[in-house]
Amino acid sequence: MSDMSRDEKLVATVWGEILASATRAIDVEQALAPMLREFVLDQPSFSHAIAYRLGAKLVYHSKRGGHLDEVFREAFLDDPAILAQIAADLNAIVERDPACDSVLIPFLWFKGFQAITCHRVAHWLWRRGRCLFALHIQSLVSEVFAVDIHPAARIGRGILLDHATGFVVGETAIIEDDVSLLHAVTLGGTGKERGDRHPKVRRGVLIGAGAKILGNIEINEGAKIGAGSVVLDSVPPHTTVVGVPAQPVEDVDSCDLPAFNMDHHFHKLSRVWAPEI
Question: What is the pLDDT of residues 14-68, one digit of tens each?
């Protein structure tokens, strides 16, 4: 174990936790034993388990299922960093979601985690010029999970996408590490222009349910976006914005990286805010 890299240790630890949780779950819920054996205990590795689970989720909307497993495993073998991103996402969910106390739960059932994982493979395909297959996975994810992420969008690690339904991300969007987002969030454009046209969400940002962030703007590190807000201008670091259009509010209880504490509270409007020109 001492010769393993940090990412390899992360993957091994998370896979060990999934195996242990699945073994315990069989003892308390015998009806789930066939499923737990098929998707976890009978799989030879974390990469095989992820590929097999997601292939099974998507196969109902695809005429062939085996090709999906193969492509997922090909991606993991070619770029092991993807597995570390996936493991970091699982840890982030357990740390930030009070409804989840085991990495086995999102692995098997949380569609936000599963959709982001599928996107990681679609993005791997896109970067290698296999754009048609990447779009194929995007389409399947949209049908199965009600999540639509363009394969070219760049997403970091340690992501919590909670509930996920209606999550939309455009082609040139960037989501950096350690971001938490809820359902019905849109990172979109503002017209039919081409080129760099979607938001850049920096580390530690928290985005509330239903927020719409539009255009090539920066949501800087540690910012918080209130639920239902429409954000059309860049947001400074460690600033909370709410409303339509979004404006800053006093948020004395906010932490440096609100993605970690998931606190959506804020205080009264403190000043009129105009974006920097």
Answer: 999 999 999 999 999 999 999 999 999 999 999 999 999 999 999 765 555 558 8
Integer CA distances (angstroms), 46 to 3, 73, 83, in order: 19, 10, 8
CA distances to 69, 114, 273 from 230, in Å: 38, 27, 14
CATH of 170-277, one of 3.40.50.1980, 2.60.40.10, 2.160.10.10, 2.40.37.10: 2.160.10.10
CATH 1.10.3130.10 is held by the domain 1-146? yes
- List Cβ neighbours of 206 (8 Å cut-off, separation of 6 or more): 179, 180, 181, 223, 224, 225, 258, 259, 262, 263, 264
The β-bridge partners of 249 are: 240
Beta bridge partners of 201: 175, 219
> Is residue 229 within 8 Å of residue 248, measured between CB atoms?
no
* Largest Cα span, the chain: 62
Domain parsing of the chain, residue ranges: 1-146, 170-277
Q: What is the pLDDT of residues 84-141, one digit of tens each?
A: 999 999 999 999 999 999 999 999 999 999 999 999 999 999 999 999 999 999 999 9
Number of neighbours of residue 31 by Cβ within 10 angstroms: 7
